[in-house]
Amino acid sequence: MSKSLHQDNKLVDTDFDRNHVWHPYSSANPINDNYAVKSASGCEIELTNGQRLIDGMASWWSAIHGYQVAAINQAIHQQLESMSHVMFGGLTHGPATELCRKLVALTPEPLQRVFLSDSGSVSVEVAMKMALQYWHGQRRPQKSRFITVRNGYHGDTFGAMSVCDPVNGMHSLFSDALPQALFLPPPPAGFDAPLDSAWQQEVAQAFELHADNLAAFIIEPVIQGAGGMRFYNPQYLGFIKQLCEQHAVLFIADEIATGFGRSGKMFAVEHAGICPDIMCLGKALTGGTLSLAATLCTNDVAETVCRSAAGVFMHGPTFMGNPLACAIANASIELLLASPWQQRVHAIEQVLTVGLAPCRDIDGVADVRVLGAIGVVEMKQAIDVATLQARVMANGAWIRPFGKLAYVMPPFVISQQQLQQLTDAICKAVEPV
Ligand SMILES: *Cc1c(COP(=O)(O)O)cnc(C)c1O
């Protein structure tokens, strides 16, 4: 085999892609090629074959402002003029301190300390390590187990994976290597559903029974994302927060998908009026431009972590606080705050509600649900992803279904017309042939 080292970035070699490049959750022998992208701007992705697709995914929750955003591109260029990166050990810089100042101001008041990292999964590892070191600091090291609900998703690294849904997360593959978390049934479905006292009782019992060994409870507030796109009543969060306080268990809110407005509130915990001890942020943090994540915690957690034998918090990624990523996050947050994001999310919610409603009458559709800028069509059977995707693309839109779910979480700046085209494309695509 000949090896050429020079390739134009603009060319997409799909043969090479198929034979050498891993994609998310993909086979080494994929049946279908990945679609080659030439560019993305506004709310559209342009393929190399010239086809333009309305982006229903916001690149997995992240591109809330769409693509090629002038203010963000300008922030990149400006930051490049001083530095793209310096190490964060022993050094600090404006982009990072400014970002942490913004995050402290934006999140619930007790969250005062920020740990920056590279990706959502790492921010969850960091949160879990904080919880473990916290109990070492309290001289209660036996509190080392995590408690969570089924249908969760918290990332793909080992700690994060151990608190993902055991079935969706294929724990059977990794069971010997994974810490054994304690799993509760998922919060009963429905944002407006009345509280289910049987579920609450079961949860309360688990806390009572296991509190001596529990370090922290971790959950995606209000919206369970990749573990099933489920919405639940925010009052359950208040209920669990109370149990956590009563039984000395830390509360970790994973806002990686829900943070920065997606649910209609800046952070989904605001629906419940609670403040977690630790909060994870990622995805939309840089408006979908670079990988960056943050773990916030209270002063109490931070101080106690540092009373553990180590005396410090034991984590420090190479690219921690990357100035370029921080500068982008600052621009993205400023852009979000200067925009009428609440009205936009509310308007998206209304168009999705109306636009996806016809799916309810389609054979094979089990449920249609909308919350904030998220729309979900749940089928009765597992979706043939390639076929459904091709049908949606034939109608000019891009989505990425999984399991029984066809769902959208578009950029907040999507126009009403684009959004209607998106919901029309989904309605047509889920109709039986
Ligand atoms: C995507 C996601 C993660 C993992 O983030 P990565 O950046 O992919 O590592 C963790 N938790 C939730 C809720 C997510 O949606």
Task: Based on the model shown, name its key terms.
Adenosylmethionine-8-amino-7-oxononanoate aminotransferase; pyridoxal phosphate; binds pyridoxal-5'-phosphate; seven-stranded mixed β-sheet; 14 helices; four-stranded mixed β-sheet; 36% helix; alpha/beta; S-adenosyl-L-methionine; 433 residues; pyridoxal phosphate binding
Please give a structural write-up.
This protein is α/β, with parallel strands linked by helices. It is built from 14 helices and 16 strands. It has helices spanning 14-20, 58-61, 70-82, 94-106, 120-137, 158-162, 171-174, 197-210, 235-246, 299-305, 323-338, 341-356, 385-394, 416-430, and strands at 37-41, 44-47, 52-55, 111-117, 145-149, 182-184, 214-219, 223-224, 230-231, 250-254, 278-281, 293-298, 365-371, 374-379, 397-398, 405-408. It has a 7-stranded mixed β-sheet, sandwiched between helices. Strands 1-2-3-15 form a 4-stranded mixed β-sheet. Helix 5 (120-137) crosses helix 10. The longest helix has 18 residues, at 120-137. The structure holds pyridoxal-5'-phosphate. Residues 119-121, 124, 153-155, 220, 225-226, 254, 256-257, 282-283 line the site of pyridoxal-5'-phosphate (PLP). Belongs to the class-III pyridoxal-phosphate-dependent aminotransferase family. BioA subfamily. Pathway: Cofactor biosynthesis; biotin biosynthesis; 7,8-diaminononanoate from 8-amino-7-oxononanoate (SAM route): step 1/1. It is found in: Cytoplasm.
